[in-house]
């Protein structure tokens, strides 16, 4: 069991592309947690890259569909990417302790809350549009 295990109740949003990306995110985070220290820097960088693409895709979807929560949602993405970028710089300098601590708790807490609030809002917006035809 890992805090990064997929959980239908907590994570499933019913939008296939978002769910697939979130599953990948969790898998990457889990691989960092359980992986050898020698792999940490490479895997952490991979997670940051994946997260950049994940956020950019959601933001593009919000723009295309005029999602009302765009600005708030983008701001949360930007804050987390800022944190990840700073951790990545420390990792590159041979100081992975902060990044490790973040993976061990903060990132998981952020992800679950973000999915339950902002990503859930986006999914509801997309599903409502689809059903509106
Ligand atoms: Fe997301
Ligand atoms: Fe998001």
UniProtKB/TrEMBL annotation:
<dbReference type="InterPro" id="IPR012827">
    <property type="entry name" value="Hemerythrin_metal-bd"/>
</dbReference>
<dbReference type="InterPro" id="IPR035938">
    <property type="entry name" value="Hemerythrin-like_sf"/>
</dbReference>
<keyword id="KW-0479">Metal-binding</keyword>
<dbReference type="GO" id="GO:0046872">
    <property type="term" value="F:metal ion binding"/>
</dbReference>
<dbReference type="InterPro" id="IPR050669">
    <property type="entry name" value="Hemerythrin"/>
</dbReference>
<feature type="domain" description="Hemerythrin-like">
    <location>
        <begin position="14"/>
        <end position="124"/>
    </location>
</feature>
<keyword id="KW-0408">Iron</keyword>
<dbReference type="InterPro" id="IPR012312">
    <property type="entry name" value="Hemerythrin-like"/>
</dbReference>
<comment type="similarity">
    <text>Belongs to the hemerythrin family.</text>
</comment>
<protein>
    <submittedName>
        <fullName>Hemerythrin-like metal-binding protein</fullName>
    </submittedName>
</protein>
<dbReference type="Pfam" id="PF01814">
    <property type="entry name" value="Hemerythrin"/>
</dbReference>
